[in-house]
């Protein structure tokens, strides 16, 4: 009766089943996977956020497929504040980055076409692509003290049905940014092969150190048709506000935006209140963003100190909200994750959740409150 696009395995895995059992029993679980900024004790300017949503103009509906002019001007201002010039006319609003991916897959592909995506990375692309009847082919990131794109493997992954290349900048969970030389090579390759580049930049504002070779955004003069995506969820720590965007640049960007406008006009999914409030929400985001930066940097430093001299290795991260530990392969990642949860009450994510090519890796969120994180890491070290 239902579409084969929904033939997903939704049965609980052993880790989620054990977690549910623990929670039903009332056991205390130290969650080192928490990625929701509204649940980790941040101080939000509540009155100001609510006031931004109380503007009377939110009561009037003026459907605009690309997004209200004022909202797109606010997004252009966000880039301008970070030293990148773009025009509101190059911007299209969406309800989320996930919806931005869906629009771009609709724009670029026919059923059965392919999109290249990095490995390891956040395990969402296959689901989004599957809903558009598109296939994901992976290209690897390699680690040799720092993460980098394996361009030989990337080129080998391109087929006649490839339509675009996804980059996550910085990557989730590795925290690695594209470097200038990598972007130049990627831009040239995509232009020569007639491919679009889709850049997910939701974590771009979260860096742990400066690096002159780093590229934090692909917005700018590009050889290939390029789409940069971001939104309020990470920038302002407001995932519930549901507003994202696409910035198009490079050859054919205006034609692409016209086509995206047709797609957006079919759904008109972005709500008026969040568009009207966007300028003020972005202005308020600085304090929230700074709290998250301080939290992630502090937890990363604590983790680095905690595993020093242990059997675990903390992989280098340049930014984002996550840390990756390489641990001895004396048991599988699943077995280790289950042991931590069952015997220590600590929840982490195994590397295979993110398609790491080999074992054994653990992925930890750097967002949890410091006391929770410190205790969880201490228990983790006692096991590894």
Please, could you describe this protein's structure?
Helix 1 packs parallel to helix 11, helix 4 packs across helix 9 (253-267) and helix 10 (272-307) packs across helix 12 (370-383). This protein has helices at residues 14-24, 46-52, 69-81, 97-108, 125-131, 151-157, 180-193, 232-235, 253-267, 272-307, 333-344, 370-383, and strands spanning 30-31, 91-94, 114-119, 135-143, 147-149, 162-168, 178-179, 196-200, 214-215, 226-231, 244-249, 313-314, 322-326, 346-347, 349-350, 361-365. It has two domains: 12-43 and 286-383, Aspartate Aminotransferase, domain 1 (Alpha-Beta Complex), CATH 3.90.1150; 46-284, Type I PLP-dependent aspartate aminotransferase-like (Major domain) (Aspartate Aminotransferase, domain 2, 3-Layer(aba) Sandwich). It contains twelve helices and 16 strands. With 384 residues, the chain is α/β, with parallel strands linked by helices. The longest helix has 36 residues, at 272-307. The N and C termini lie far apart (48 Å).
Keywords summarizing the entry:
single chain, 384 residues, alpha/beta, Aspartate Aminotransferase, domain 1, Aspartate Aminotransferase, domain 2, 2 domains, eight-stranded mixed sheet, four-stranded antiparallel sheet, 12 helices, 18% strand, globular
CATH superfamily of the largest domain: Type I PLP-dependent aspartate aminotransferase-like (Major domain)
Number of domains: 2
Number of strands: 16
Radius of gyration: 21 Å
How many strands, what sense, and barrel or not for the largest sheet? 8 strands, mixed
Structural class, from secondary structure content?
A: alpha/beta
- The percent range for strand residues is 15-25%
């Amino acid at each position: 009766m239902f579409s084969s696009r929904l033939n997903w395995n939704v049965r609980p895995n052993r880790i989620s089943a054990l977690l549910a059992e623990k929670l039903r029993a009332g056991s205390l679980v130290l969650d080192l996977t928490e990625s929701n900024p509204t649940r980790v004790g941040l101080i939000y300017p509540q009155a100001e956020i609510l006031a931004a949503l109380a503007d009377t103009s939110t009561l009037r509906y003026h459907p605009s497929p690309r997004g209200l002019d004022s909202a797109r001007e606010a997004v252009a201002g966000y880039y301008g504040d970070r030293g990148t010039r773009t025009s509101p006319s190059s911007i299209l609003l969406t309800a989320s980055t996930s919806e931005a991916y869906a629009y771009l897959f609709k724009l670029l592909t026919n059923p059965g076409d392919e999109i290249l995506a990095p490995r390891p990375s956040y395990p969402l692309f296959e689901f989004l692509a599957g809903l558009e009847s598109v296939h994901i082919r992976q290209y690897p990131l390699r680690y040799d003290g720092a993460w980098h794109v394996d361009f030989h493997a990337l080129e080998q992954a391109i087929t006649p049905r490839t339509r675009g290349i996804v980059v996550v900048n910085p990557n989730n969970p590795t925290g690695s940014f594209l470097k200038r030389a990598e972007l130049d090579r990627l831009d040239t390759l995509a232009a020569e092969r007639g491919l679009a580049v889709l850049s997910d930049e939701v974590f771009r504002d979260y860096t742990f150190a400066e690096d002159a070779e780093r590229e934090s955004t692909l917005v700018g003069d590009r050889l290939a048709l390029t789409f940069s995506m971001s939104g309020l969820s990470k920038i302002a720590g407001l995932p519930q506000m549901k507003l994202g965007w696409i910035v198009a640049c490079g050859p054919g960007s205006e034609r692409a935006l016209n086509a995206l406008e047709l797609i957006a006009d079919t759904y008109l999914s972005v709500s008026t209140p969040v568009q009207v409030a966007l300028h003020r929400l972005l202005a308020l985001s600085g304090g929230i963003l700074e709290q998250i930066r301080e939290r992630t940097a502090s937890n990363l430093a604590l983790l680095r100190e905690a595993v020093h001299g242990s059997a675990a290795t903390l992989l280098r991260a340049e930014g984002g909200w996550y840390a990756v530990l390489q641990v001895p392969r004396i048991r599988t990642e699943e077995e280790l994750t289950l042991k931590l949860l069952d015997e220590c009450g600590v929840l982490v994510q195994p590397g295979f959740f993110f398609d790491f090519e080999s074992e054994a890796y653990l992925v930890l969120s750097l967002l949890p409150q410091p006391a929770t994180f410190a205790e969880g890491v201490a228990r983790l070290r006692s096991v590894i």
